[in-house]
Amino acid sequence: GCIPSKALLDSSKLYRDIAQRSKTHGIHAESLRVEVAEFLGRKDRVVKQFADGIGMLFKGNRITPYWGRGRIRPGNEVIVDGMDGKQHTIAATHIIIATGSQPISIPSVAFDRVMVVDHAGALEFDQIPGRLGVIGAGTIGLELGSVWSRLGAHVTLLESSADFLRSVDADIAQVGLREFRRQGLHIELGAQVADAKVVGSEVRVRFSNPEGDHELVVDKLLVAAGRRPFTEGLFEPEVGIQIDKRGRIVVDESCATDVPGIWAIGDVVRGPMLAHKGSQEGIAVAERIAGHVSQVDFNKVPWVIYTDPEIAWVGQGENDLGLAGVPHKVGTFTFAAAGRAAAMNETAGHVKILAHAETDRILGAQMVGPGASELIAEVVLAMELHARIQDIGRVAHANPSLSEAVREAALAASRRAITMLNH
Length: 423
Ligand code: NAI
Hints:
This protein has eleven helices and 20 strands. The chain is of the alpha/beta class. A hairpin with a 2-residue loop joins strand 10 and strand 11. It is globular and about 65 Å long. Bound molecules: 1,4-dihydronicotinamide adenine dinucleotide.
């Protein structure tokens, strides 16, 4: 899902920017239209390019792929029911399980893969839905809801939680909510979905919120209410791999399962369901198998929501630190005061950085605004290098650039921001 959704986010942003934002820049475009087949075709080409690239890496590194469904048997053997109709048995000293996750389905909302779809279906609509309903205003709902909304769909997101993006810093989430609503996403918070039924060419979703009972009628419904680990038919019970209450394969901090030689990484185990967390774990396991020491620190894994504005965060937030009683200082900087953001006409949002009040070590950052997905990397690196908050402030950042917002937030945390009135 990662690359195709980003490809569609970029294409749809380009369309929306030309249609709605270019006039501010003195650029007048007429007769704009989206050819959905070409729009999806570009995404498919990007995906193919990367898939082919991985195929080349397999060849170059002498990796033999088996295409089919695998099942682990006691004695660390994998049986593969191959797509070629043959069965293969592979014995291995080490097995790494990386089967990922699948969408959670909601009772009374059955996927039919045409009108009621998961993220994969919402990457393939062959025309722009007039009305798109989304269950769940989380990462997938916001990203794919944005894609189709930018192309003209009327998008309504039904979110069961009363708080928008409740795992994100509250100030950041509020800016996001304001901007997404301003862009036309209709976001219903505290919405409890009762059921969804396909009636003719429509989907009727019944839900309730504090104001009462409602019916939402849409042409397509995307269910994006979270994902769960995928382990169906993956191993025979005698293998001895443990599954926890949430369906995750139980592993220790080095991704080892209870069975010697069997490891598990990514969405199928504990920790954030993020592609880069899975790949970091994969590399760490390979290094451990090769006899090296390696670890993945979830506190330094960045999170990104690729909406516009983008939302990104790493480490601890004000709420976490307050609850843990950690003395901390906070610096914020608004993109409205960043020259580059003004030149881009993308001034919504801000950067917030947190540091320990006594040691000045950087504890986390949260940001909403242009380029947040890239800007967060500086803070991740600073945290990894145990930088102090002043270190970011001391480093020259190109002017004008969006990265100045990170520097200014860092300076503000130690009350050294140039833009601050210090009396
Ligand atoms: P999510 O956990 O981000 O959001 C699900 C949302 O649905 C939550 O806000 C939840 O409160 C709401 N919800 C749950 N049940 C509901 C119900 N019955 N009715 C209404 N709302 C309900 O999960 P999402 O968006 O499905 O994504 C799945 C996973 O994939 C996440 O762990 C996410 O981190 C990952 N992902 C990451 C991306 C990225 O890094 N940019 C992109 C896409 C997915």
